[in-house]
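Supplementary notes for students who missed Thursday's class. We covered one full example, reproduced here. Read the sequence, then the structure, then the short commentary at the end.
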Amino acid sequence: MKKVFKIIGWSVLTIIILLGTALGLFIYKVKNGFPVSYETEKPSIDFPDNQKAVLVFSKTTGFRHSSSIDASKPIMKQLAQKNNWFIYDTEEGGVFNPEQLAKFNTVIFDNSTGEVINDEQKRALEQYVENGGGLIGIHGAGDDSHHWDWYEQNLLGAKFSHHALAEQFQTADIQKDNKADSTVINGLASSWKHADEWYIFFENPRAKGFNIIYFMDGDKIDTNGSMPLLASDKNFGMGKDHPLAWCKSIGKGKTFYTSLGHNEVAWKNENFVKLIENAISWTQKK
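Structure (token representation):
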């Protein structure tokens, strides 16, 4: 009988260790990206002479928002056809070199998470933006898995904390800010309802000089992202003024970020698609 209890005990302990290891690896992957590798070979790209070029980068080493990334691809192609843009869609970081970046009008981190480009490639992108390029981040591009100070300061303007867990997807009223840049909001709806995974940041990018395009009343959603033992202090939000999309001029270039877009639902919403279209157009203007 003792042998049976011993076997059961060891079995339970083994299961607990395996579950703990799996959870630990998942948390590490979400926070840091795993496994991390960098591509350095320059791709062969045939840039058309009569089209503005948009780089859509969706590489992930952190959490992968597969449904959103997959849903974005046909929409990006439709926007390209509509606006006569050239879209280069890749998950290979070799394109982040000064020579090829200079040929793009806009770079989009399409739910790209984790460590996805090396330090040299990061510096190339920083210089690209500061010299007149455009950089857009969508949803997961704003989490805290990037570990890149320039990126956090100049694209996000705030440090990511968490997203709601108790009720991951909640419907909210998205409101256009009355001080939103008029060149970005052309044709955008003044308000609309949307269900998403709401991101919570430690700061408000408005305080860092970013121009807010859309916001919601953060007091009307459940922002609790706490987990027993692992993260028990995430039961806070950003307050009533909770920005959802914002932009800023950085040097000679422009950046735009929206925390909307966790899954394919966003890409079926004409208001969200129009927001992304406007953001691309805005970052392209020199």
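Commentary. Residues 60 and 257 are 17 Å apart (CA to CA). The first strand starts at residue 52 and ends at 57. If anything here is unclear, bring it to office hours.
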